[in-house]
Amino acid sequence: MKKIFTHSILMILGYSLTAQTAYITNQADGTVSVINIANNNVTSTIPVGSSPACVAVSPDGNRAYVSNEFDNTVKVINTTNNTVSATIIVGSKPYGIAVSPDGNKVYVSNDGPNTVSIINSSTNIVTATVSVGTDPGGICISPDGSKAYVANYFNNTVSVIDCNSITVVATVTVGSYPLGVDVSPDGSKVYVTNEFTNTVSVINTATNTVSATIRVGDYPEGVAVNQDGSKVYVANELANTVSVINSTTNDISATIPVGVGPYGLALSPDGKKIYVANSDAGTVDVINTTNNTVIGTIKVGNSPLAFGNFISIHK
């Protein structure tokens, strides 16, 4: 559900040789909480802007990109010292954000003009803009970097962008009010949460058609596929649960109670834990993926949305 402040937000995923850190956007506070996931302690709180929405960490873990919906900017966080190193002006009401697998481009969906801005990560300059559907939200990039998938909230579609030609090459009709998107590790499937139908659409990326529709909990928001593609996790905001989907059968294998208003979620690099931002509780729950139980709860800021992958590398 779109929050009183705006859409939902997100967090980012990476790997680390030393420390692994979760960057949680607190939409009502204008801040990002930094969590050391080794001990689940909040180590820093970073002011970023007005209504921070999504976060995306670069593949090398050196930068975290945060979209601020109400000041039309993307803030770049230097993850070495957790300070803002740059401010990039994008379109009106930026929301979804994702980094290409090679780290060279950053894709940002803009609610106001119904566009996606493409940022050169070396120069922090917007180099291209492409029109998509109405009220674009979540965005993800295929593992080979060739396609971007954008959920268009108000016209019930997903736009497929060719990242080489920077054009929309397909528009896929999904359920009502799609918001969250994630792609399988092999790039063959894209999972889309549909808020008003309480479903997840599964897109076959070879044909750009919906191959399955899966019933989950009330108001599904964030979605994350695990490292081998066998499980898909969905945060159900009004049900206060996380659904676990078996990707082979498209059945629900578990339903996990969490805090109030779960929105975004992301897996730890080893896949053993999943972090869930509870937007109405001001907390992040930590789930053990082996037995699907909550093993910890972390207090963060106000209205943590955490839409997407939010765990970074620190070298």
Question: What does this 3D model show about the protein?
Answer:
The structure is a single chain. This protein has 315 residues and is mainly beta. Helix content is 0%, strand content 56%. It has a single domain, classed as Methylamine Dehydrogenase, Chain H (7 Propeller). The protein has strands spanning 19-26, 31-36, 41-47, 52-57, 63-68, 73-78, 83-89, 94-99, 105-110, 115-120, 125-131, 136-141, 147-152, 157-162, 167-173, 178-183, 189-194, 199-204, 209-215, 220-225, 231-236, 241-246, 251-257, 262-267, 273-278, 283-288, 293-299, 311-314. It has a four-stranded antiparallel beta sheet with strand order 3-2-1-28, with no helix packed on it. The radius of gyration is 17 Å and the shape is globular. Residues 4-18 have low confidence and may be disordered.
Q: Within the CATH hierarchy, at the fold level, what is the topology?
A: Methylamine Dehydrogenase, Chain H
- CATH level-1 class: Mainly Beta
Number of separate strands: 28
Spell the H/E element sequence.
Answer: EEEEEEEEEEEEEEEEEEEEEEEEEEEE
Helix content: under 10%
Strand content: over 45%
Distance between the first and last residues' Cα: 36 Å
